[in-house]
Amino acid sequence: MWETKIVEIRKKVKESIEGLPYEKLNQKPSQEEWTIAQIVLHLAGAETRFLTLANDSAKSGGGRSESDVDLSVFDDPSQKLIAPIEPSSDPQKMDDLMKALDESRSLTTHFLEKYTKEGLNRQSMNHHRFGDMPIWQVLELLGKHEQRHLVQMEDVKKRIT
Prior knowledge:
Elements: H1 2-17, H2 22-25, H3 36-60, H4 94-114, H5 117-120, E1 124-127, E2 131-134, H6 138-160
Antiparallel strand pairs: 1-2
């Protein structure tokens, strides 16, 4: 299920930023908030971290997790979360942002080509926020995380135009 959803969500992310001028990509809606470019860099960086962790755990055989972790924290955009790594505040060009999204997605594509849910048989990985979780659930984590930030990007676009 999430194997398909992450493709759809990424398509929406790319469509959301297509055609935005350089100035809008790099404009903060407020001093405390991220630019759209920073959100995109955050998405690419998070996907890279999530999938590197998943791939490394799958290769090593990891532990076992009998149940999925609760990822509902991503479902409420009003609940503020602190990112463990702050994205660069350097201004970004559209081509560089698209390249970052494509490069991070290549890790997910590689993961999906190499593993199946059944093949991982509830092997676990350890996530900094959620603890031990089934490796395969990384796809749900990725999808919910990206969907949350897609909503954030749409909100930023409304407030900077």
